[in-house]
Write a structure and sequence with these properties.
Radius of gyration: 25 Å
Low-confidence stretches: 1-6, 26-38, 46-51, 63-111
Helix content: 25-40%
CATH architecture of the largest domain: 3-Layer(aba) Sandwich
Shape: globular
Strand content: 5-15%
Number of helices: 8
Number of domains: 2
Order of helices and strands: HEEHEEEHHEEEHHHH
Oligomer: single chain
Distance between the termini: 58 Å
Largest sheet: 8 strands, mixed
Number of strands: 8
């Protein structure tokens, strides 16, 4: 009997030994992999209420002109007098009526299709396919944005060739997002209007997103590269919907260096200054707020080529991965099993 008991104990000891080894390796894997994916976006999603407006002003050199979040009500407007009021936003309808004072040639008897008509049809196509309203030319005359730092004026695009170029840029970049994504945000109560303008009263400004939980207006300056501006501003729009659905990004600050505070810019922390893949931020502008950090990171995620700061396991990769998984979780039109355009550098 003692021999049998000893044999049994030896057998069970071997089993426990192999189980212990397996658990040890599993723990090592979790430790390593957990350093890369240790933030669960679901835990950062809570129910939030509010209709506070936010204005994000993006500049070429990353200078902060307007604080990331400011309660300024409905801030943009188009008025014949040029004076701003709080009657904006521009209604985001699927189709805009043709201005009776416009020189647009829509005659069906004409043998020549003017560029103005081509632009109008292209705008209609964008609005129909993506659920995004578009305004340009004299429709944006006197468009201005009230901010806590003053009023930012805009100059319209009056050249049909330039309008056509900007409309084609817009259609091109919208096709990079999942089909139905912008329509889902619109159906969720935040319709988007894109205003194609020539420039702002401050020429360093590339784009502005004016949004709340009930509307969003993105204006893009034609004098600056369109794609980068739209990627940045579109993320502000996407995040407005994420916030409406309950995302909070409460864990975002854990990516920052110890002792770092938003609004204090350190050149050595930015990838564009150091080209170090271990950078904490993609650029200096990203250091102004969590929202601008995410929008700036999204620019890099959507770029034509991969920056080394997006290499697997870096701080900026962790930020990008966290953003991508939060979008996957919130949006019905974004499939977590599909590598979206902004995720192609992450996997």
């Amino acid at each position: 009997m003692p021999g049998i008991v000893k044999k049994d104990l030896t057998y069970y000891a071997k089993i426990l030994f192999f189980i212990s080894i397996a658990l040890l390796f599993y723990g090592i894997i979790l430790s390593v992999y957990g350093n890369y994916r240790y933030i669960d976006p679901v835990k950062d999603v809570t129910v939030v209420d509010g209709t506070d407006s936010t204005i994000s002003v993006t500049t070429v050199d990353g200078t902060v002109i307007v604080p990331d979040s400011s309660e300024v009500g409905s801030t943009g407007n188009v008025s014949e007098s040029g004076n701003t009021s709080n009657t904006f936003p521009i209604p985001s309808t699927d189709d805009y009526p043709v201005d009776s004072n416009s020189n647009r040639n829509t005659s069906v008897d004409s043998n020549i299709t003017t560029l103005d008509v081509i632009n109008s049809n292209l705008r209609d196509e964008i609005q129909s396919d993506f659920g995004v309203a578009v305004r340009y030319g004299d429709e944006t005359t006197n468009y201005s944005i009230n901010t806590t730092s003053g009023t930012i004026m805009t100059t319209p695009i009056l050249n049909d060739n330039e309008v056509n170029k900007q409309l084609n840029y817009l259609k091109k970049v919208l096709n990079l997002y999942p089909k139905g994504m912008f329509q889902e945000i619109k159906s969720g109560g935040i319709p988007l209007t894109v205003l194609l303008i020539n420039n702002y009263s401050d020429d360093s400004i590339t784009g502005i997103t004016d949004s709340s939980y009930t509307y969003a207006n993105i204006s893009i300056a034609a004098v600056h590269p369109f794609e980068e501006s739209f990627y940045h501003e579109s993320y502000h729009y996407i995040e407005r919907f994420l916030m409406k659905r309950g995302a909070t990004f409460n864990s975002w600050d854990s990516f920052n260096p110890v002792g770092f505070s938003w609004g204090t810019v350190y050149n050595d922390y930015s990838f564009v200054n150091t080209f170090s893949e271990d950078s904490f931020f993609v650029n200096n502008y990203a250091q102004t707020s969590g929202a601008e950090d995410r929008a700036s990171t999204f620019e890099f995620m959507m770029a034509n080529s991969k920056a080394s700061c997006l290499n697997y396991g870096t701080t900026i990769w962790k930020k990008a991965d966290y953003m991508a998984r939060t979008i996957d979780y919130v949006f019905n039109t974004v499939n977590s099993n599909t590598i979206e355009y902004w995720e192609r550098f992450l996997y």
